[in-house]
Amino acid sequence: MINRSAAFAVLNALLLLAGAIDARERRLPNVLAILLAAASAIAALASGGVDALALNALAAFAICGMLLVLELFWRTRRGVAGQGIGDIKALFSLVLAAPVRGVISYALALIGLAITGIAVHRPALPLLPFLAVAFICLGLLPSFG
After folding, report:
1. What is the DSSP letter of 100?
2. For the chain, what is the domain count?
3. Domain that includes residue 112, residue range
4. What sign for the dihedral angle of Cα 83, 86, 88, 94?
């Protein structure tokens, strides 16, 4: 049996690494995205077995599929990127691990990004550092941990 706490600890460590890379380079390397997805799948298995993994995967595909369609529509209409594909890949992993926590983390990250962007007068900032902090902090709360 996989220890749930250990699975989420590995996921959180990978998420912090991804956030640091995104802050510095504005990208999520594919190898790290795959590791995040694998760690998330293990965390889902540890949380509720194969049934939880299947349900979480369905939620992740649905949510991130809609975001991907919206992003591609945005890019064709506006000619510029709105949200990075790496951010969508990271969100997929978080929803795969814990759907409600992942979606709430995404919303909090967008709010934090908007407030920070206004405060520092920058039109674009990396989302993944905000997403990592939100997901990890929510995990510290009893109802999400």
Report:
1. H
2. 1
3. 4-140
4. negative
Task: Quickly list DSSP for 18-79.
Answer: HHHHHHHHS---HHHHHHHHHHHHHHHHHHHHHHHHHHHHHHHHHHHHHHHHHHHHHHHHHS
75: which residues sit within 8 A by CB, 6+ positions away?
81, 82
User: Is 145 a domain residue?
Assistant: no
Q: Tell me the pLDDT of the chain (145 aa) as tens digits.
A: 789 999 999 999 999 999 999 999 999 999 999 999 999 999 999 999 999 999 999 999 999 999 999 999 999 999 988 899 999 999 999 999 999 999 999 999 999 999 999 999 998 999 999 999 999 999 999 887 6
As a whole number of Å, the CA-based R_g of the chain is: 15
**Burial category of 95 from C-beta neighbours within 10 Å (exposed 0-12, middle 13-18, buried 19 and up):** buried
**Within-domain flag for 25:** yes
